[in-house]
Amino acid sequence: MTTRFDVAEHLRTPEEMAAYLEACFEEAQGDATFIAKALGDIARAKGMAQVARDAGLSRESLYKALSGERSPGFDTILRVVGALGLALHAKVPQKPGSRRSITRARAPKRRAA
After folding, report:
1. Nearest alpha carbon to residue 21 among 4, 2, 35, 5
2. Mean per-residue pLDDT for 70-86?
3. What is the mean pLDDT of the chain?
4. In terms of C-beta distances under 8 Å and separation of at least 24 residues, what long-range contacts does 42-45 make, across chains too?
5. Cα gap 100→104, rounded to integer Å
6. DSSP one-letter string for the chain
7. Is 0.85 surpassed by the pTM of this model?
8. Is the pLDDT of residue 69 over 80?
């Protein structure tokens, strides 16, 4: 018998949840329902009832918003992200093959005096 993989069972720490959401943002290519589904995975990992309470939503509303069947409003997304203990950050996307971001990641070389 084959069991179905459930990512929510593997999201145990806030760091894992944040990494998963960031990977989903990269994969989504602007698909808001994909992001809603990812938030739903994280909410299930934390406990839907608690996330719903913390977001000020009913459990039913939370399930509908994060089902991936429709795109929830941005206000709902912000409330859920906050309830999950996460934050959204904006960054300039890295262009494929760009060395600029790699160069900036290294510490500057010091000159010998």
Report:
1. 35
2. 94
3. 87
4. 42/8, 42/11, 42/17, 42/84, 42/86, 43/80, 43/83, 43/84, 44/6, 44/8, 45/7, 45/8, 45/9, 45/11, 45/12, 45/17
5. 6
6. -PPPP-GGGG--SHHHHHHHHHHHHHHHTT-HHHHHHHHHHHHHHH-HHHHHHHHT--HHHHHHHTSSSS---HHHHHHHHHHTT------PPPPTT--HHHHHHSPPPPPP-
7. no
8. yes
